[in-house]
Design brief:
The chain is α/β, with parallel strands linked by helices and 127 residues long. It has helices at residues 62-74, 105-126, and strands spanning 23-33, 36-45, 50-57, 79-81, 86-89.
Length: 127
């Protein structure tokens, strides 16, 4: 008598980024991954939806990593704003519990600048 392996229940795909909903970047988390930096951008929409976009930047430099991620997120479409987005290191990267609470204001500025520059480039191409 053979026994079939039980299959895990299918998970619903996250809500796509589409024209019916505008998204904004709420938080950005950085984590070192060898010679690269993983950047996870947490997005929220007008209807209270939440979505995470992850990208691995081909650099160890946090400044370049957040700029890379900002260009990636802005290029997705229907992400209208990154104003007030908080940038933090992921919990496992923090040296102390206090580090979990510390925002990196310089990296927040870098992320917002790159995000706005990319949105402007996209708007210019659409004209």
């Amino acid at each position: 008598m053979s026994r079939r392996a039980s299959r895990p229940a299918k998970r619903a795909d996250p809500e796509p980024i589409r024209a019916t909903s505008m998204w904004r970047v709420d938080q950005v988390f950085l984590a070192r991954s060898g010679m690269r930096t993983e950047v996870i951008s947490s997005l929220v929409n007008d209807h209270g939806g939440l979505r995470n976009l992850s990208v691995v930047a081909p650099t160890e430099d946090p400044r370049e990593a957040v700029r890379h991620a900002a260009r990636f997120v802005a290029g997705k479409g229907n992400v209208s704003s990154a104003r007030n987005a908080r940038v933090r290191w992921a919990r496992e990267q923090a040296a102390t519990e206090q580090d979990n609470l510390v925002r990196d204001l310089a990296l927040e500025d870098e992320f917002l600048d790159a995000f706005e520059e990319t949105l402007q480039e996209i708007r210019d191409r659409m004209r």
